[in-house]
Specification:
This protein is an alpha+beta fold. It has 2 domains: 70 residues, Arc Repressor Mutant, subunit A, CATH 1.10.10.10; 93 residues, no CATH class. The strands form 2 sheets. Strands 3, 4 and 5 form a 3-stranded mixed beta sheet that branches. Strands 1-2 form a two-stranded antiparallel sheet. A hairpin with a 2-residue loop joins strand 1 and strand 2. The radius of gyration is 15 Å and the shape is globular. It starts with a helix and ends with a helix.
Length: 171
Amino acid sequence: MLKPVDVAVLLYLVIHARESFAHMGALLGISTSTAHESASRLERSGLVHRIAAGFSVARGPALEFLLFGVPYAFAPEILPRARGVLTGLAAPGASTEADAPEGRPMVWPSKLGNITGMGIKPLVKGAPDSVLREPRLYRMLALVDALRTGDAREREYARRAMRQAIEATSA
């Protein structure tokens, strides 16, 4: 059975398919053994395949899982008002200003952020740190939150943006 951390690891592998588990763990804020266990679950699920130089993401199934499975499998845990790092369509680069949702933004509670908004528990503890460590991963994690929390219009925008982000990594 997949876990929330597996979504972050899958997105990491889309970007860094040939990096070490130690690098993965450091970037995601998880242990090397957790990174390895997560990659093994993803491999058993058919979302990634082990190759000599690392992993190959099964892009079709992975995209289908991200766009349509994750919002149901990993419902968001909404937290009280918090100060933190922007996520969802409010995150920088996740949407255009015209597409950004109105009202209070969503944030991952973190000492790194200075925006106050509706808190949402990140899928992986290190997600707020991804802002500094890996902007592409940050954008994808924010889009996953938009898929998990958005209304129909926001989810459709997030689907298009996620497709584009994943296609851009294979170019």
